[in-house]
Design a protein that fits this description.
The protein folds into two domains: 135 residues, Cytidine Deaminase, domain 2; 216 residues, Dihydrofolate Reductase, subunit A (3-Layer(aba) Sandwich). It has eleven helices and 16 strands. Strands 10-9-8-7-13-6-14-16-15 form a nine-stranded mixed sheet. Strands 2-1-3-4-5 form a five-stranded mixed sheet, with helices on both faces. It is of the alpha/beta class and 367 residues long.
Length: 367
């Protein structure tokens, strides 16, 4: 691609991607976008989409320059919007400010808008270079891309396990399988998603708060969702007494029981149809998507993980593997359920990446 002959494109786009990431956890259901304005090889203004409903990244950067933007180059991680929404079209503002060249990370994943912004800019005589650091730009908004195309959230399965695949001892002791660095990373991950989901057994065994603490991204807590098919949990658990939104997901026939049991708690109850006496996870995910949840983090336990995998709802996995051996044939594992009969039926993880979190190993991949 001719654009790659300019060695500065990747450098300035990398900076725009860094800026975009600052909006994590605060712009959903909008995409993350960063922008910088460049003249004579130097960045003269920067911006990013900071809050849902707020100005877009291009607008923030260009408003800092005023008339000084004329003739400059704009780097933006996502194709500029070309239609009215909560804000005016960015393509109009770019043209009005005299930008001569727009460099784009990737096309808008929205099928209704993809390519339209690029065409409009070119029709106005503005040079456009696209697909600079495209892979990184696409990954930045992988959750938004799935949601805007399917109206279903991007589902991430995150588990922490020992070298032998255990998530706790036979007695249920699980604090802590992973180390401090991995737990801090997990809180940053929580802060970047719209919802966190666990099963009833995780509440009974660990009594978690499921809040986003110590994370890199400042935000209100994401939705906390608990699968409690028969509304058996009492309201004494810590998760029901945290700030933000907590949703108890139960079977439709158990709605009245759930409402009565939690009438003194500030929680929401979401009834869902049952399938094989369990929550119909596909229906749940569809409901969440319709409510604007673009990303859902599933944190277990092993039965919940197995159910999501069996339902083919998981898009991405993060497995933290601690350098510990727990043992015990009755100790819970990261993925339980009925398992598979033949090895050829195993779930293959694609595009695998591995890195260290202090002494723990983080495995990332896609289903």
């Amino acid at each position: 691609m001719p654009a790659l002959s300019n060695p500065h494109h990747a450098r300035f786009m990398a900076r725009a991607l860094q800026l975009a990431a600052r909006g994590r956890g605060r712009v959903s259901p909008n995409p993350l976008v960063g922008a910088c304005v460049v003249r004579n090889g130097h960045i003269i203004a920067e911006g990013y989409h900071a809050n849902f409903g707020g100005p877009h990244a291009e607008i923030v950067a260009l408003k800092r320059l005023g008339k000084r933007a004329k003739g400059a180059t704009l780097y933006v991680t996502l194709e500029p919007c070309s239609t009215w929404g909560k804000t005016p079209p960015c393509t109009d503002f770019i043209r009005q400010n005299g930008i001569k060249h727009v460099v784009i990370g990737c096309q808008d994943p929205n099928p209704l808008h993809a390519g339209r912004g690029i065409r409009l800019l070119r029709q106005k005589g503005i040079r456009v270079t696209a697909n600079i650091l495209r892979e990184e730009a696409v990954k930045l908004n992988e959750a938004f891309a799935k949601w805007i195309k399917t109206q279903m959230p991007f589902v991430i399965l995150k588990m922490a396990e020992s070298l032998d695949g255990k998530i706790a001892t036979e007695t249920g002791d699980s604090k802590w399988v992973s180390g401090k660095a991995a737990r801090e990373w997990a809180h940053s991950l929580r802060a970047s998603v719209d919802g966190i989901l666990v099963g009833k057994n995780t509440i009974l065994k660990d009594n978690p708060r499921l809040t986003a603490r110590h994370g890199r991204f400042k935000r209100t807590n994401p939705w906390r969702l608990v699968l409690d098919t028969k509304a058996q949990l009492s309201n004494r658990h810590r998760i029901f007494h945290q700030s933000g939104t907590t949703v108890l997901v139960c079977g439709e026939s158990y709605l009245n029981r759930a409402v009565q049991k939690h009438r003194r708690s500030h929680i929401s109850v979401m009834p869902v149809k049952l399938k094989d006496q369990k929550i119909d996870l596909r229906e749940l995910v569809i409901k969440l998507g319709r409510l604007g949840v673009t990303s859902l983090l599933v944190e277990g336990g092993g039965e919940t993980a197995a159910s999501f995998l069996k339902s083919h709802l998981v898009d991405k996995i993060y497995f933290v593997i601690a350098p510990k051996i727990i043992g015990g044939k009755h100790a819970p594992t990261a993925v339980e359920g009925d398992g598979i009969r033949l090895l050829k039926e195993a779930k293959t993880i694609l595009r695998v990446q591995v890195r260290l979190l202090d002494r723990d190993l983080l495995v990332e991949g896609y289903c």
